[in-house]
Amino acid sequence: MVLLTLLLALTAVLTQGKLPGQQRLSLLTTTLLSRVGLFPSMLNPMDNTTYYVCHGPDVVHYVELEQGSAFKSGQPSIEQFDNEQEAVARAEELGYVFTIEE
Which of 27, 72, 82 lies closest to 50, judged by CA? Predict the structure, then answer.
């Protein structure tokens, strides 16, 4: 099942528009890793932090990862952001409540 999912992801990425080689490789890597539930923030070398909003029925998680870190989520929807304000706005839109410590 995992192999089939990876092959479908590979096909989807390779058939998407005409991206330059490096962009296509980065998109392919991100897609393949996300299909198995791994989300490496190291794929964004321009910034040290990547933000994720993971959500499913009645649950929202907000994650900040420094470059070189990875995480795995069991949520069906995972959105990646390079901009903290956009990530925070999306998390709040989905019902996430930030505490004072955050």
Answer: 82
Residue written as token pair 């839109």:
93
CA distance 95 to 15: 35
Considering only CA atoms, which of 72, 57, 64 is closest in space to residue 98?
64
Query: Full-prediction pTM beyond 0.85?
Result: no
pLDDT in tens, 39-56: 554 444 455 899 999 999
What is the distance, to the nearest Å, from the Cα of residue 33 to the centroid of all Cα atoms in its chain? 9
Q: H-helix or E-strand containing 64?
A: strand 59-66
**SS3 at position 73:** coil
